[in-house]
Amino acid sequence: RKNVPETCGRCHYKQFKQYIDSIHGQALLEGANNAPNCTDCHGEHAIKKVTSKTSPVSPENVSMQTCARCHANETINEKYGIPNDKVLSYENSYHGLAVQGKSTIAANCTSCHGVHNIYPAWDPRSTVNVANLDRTCGKCHPGASKRFASIPVHQTRSLIEAKAESIITKIYILLIISVIGSMFLHNFLIWLQAVIRKYRKLSGEPSLTRFNKNMIIQHFILFLSFTTLAITGFALKFPDAFWVKMLHSIGMTEIIRKTIHHTAGTILIAASIYHFFWLFLTRRGRVELRYMLPVAKDVSDAVHSVEFYLGLRDTKPQYDKYDYTEKAEYWALIWGTVIMSITGLIMWFPVISANLFGGWVLPIATLFHYFEAILATLAILVWHFFFAIFHPSEYPMSLVGITGKVSCESCKKHHGRWYHKLMHREPEKVRRMFDVTGQCEELEEYDEE
Known about the structure:
This protein is an all-alpha fold. Helix content is 65%, strand content 1%.
């Protein structure tokens, strides 16, 4: 290690002279084997230009990758009496945050401390010596005075400063929770009142039973298990996310997370198996499956609808019990549940899976599981929540998943084809399933298109 600088110095003599006089070079000569030499920072055979984005000493990488490798190492810091908070305090500063955001002009370690000519802060030659700081800061901040240069960068705070920071932090956390919490509660009451008004209005109107109690319970179990799986699954993948840290702070350990995730997965699989048999072994299930099967009319309905939303048609199509958006979501749910169940079981029982299929199966299953989880979660947030909550005709939310009821007026407006079937074509036993009563009036107009 001691010979490396001299070897490099045969060609890079200027850099060698700067380095050998620096704190790193002197430490290496004195026998400090942890002191960095040329190859520790630049690499050995695959040395790249400083301007290369993949170089370990490029402006984007030098602080977080190269300098931090030693200065964030607690063992090295303890051995040489170096404070442990230098890298962390830099990362949390404006300069550090900007560099983490891929800035190439924000100050990094070498901007202030030098490159090869790094000296202790007490050394008059050091660029961070108190007598030189204004000139060092002035390279980026023209006109920087000694007062400006006295602003702490990543200096260890005194007990008084740490106490003041703690008090300010606690005050603002309390303020944020109370103010934003009050805003949320106020707006939640507005939303809740709108839901209650909609429920009362629906209760007093002629209605059909779109979902029976069995279907409502199935939907609730699906909602609960899916939400739990999403939270506990992404908590493993993104342990540094703020909401995951909150879960950890209230006692969620890896054992608890894993147990909850496996339990929710088991419930989802069991509910899916039940749903499969319900579809084929019950009269209501078979009727629902018949309505849910994709047909050619769904394609023309989708085209017709998009044309209406673009202003190319004056009217929307009259849908069956399930329109093309609901069918797409349902069959995507079936597909996603199969993928997540199979890959989840492979990950749950890795030894058995590897013995049966080979070692390749686990990383492939993990990849499928992760991306399918993202796809499913985004589909719920973007697609399902829009149609169930944010759609202008449903806001503040659709109540059919809770009450199972849909007003005759709403049914005629959005599911006119289904309404027409119930009134004129479906046998009495099917009509009874949906509680079709004399209260529901016939459609004034019906276009079979």
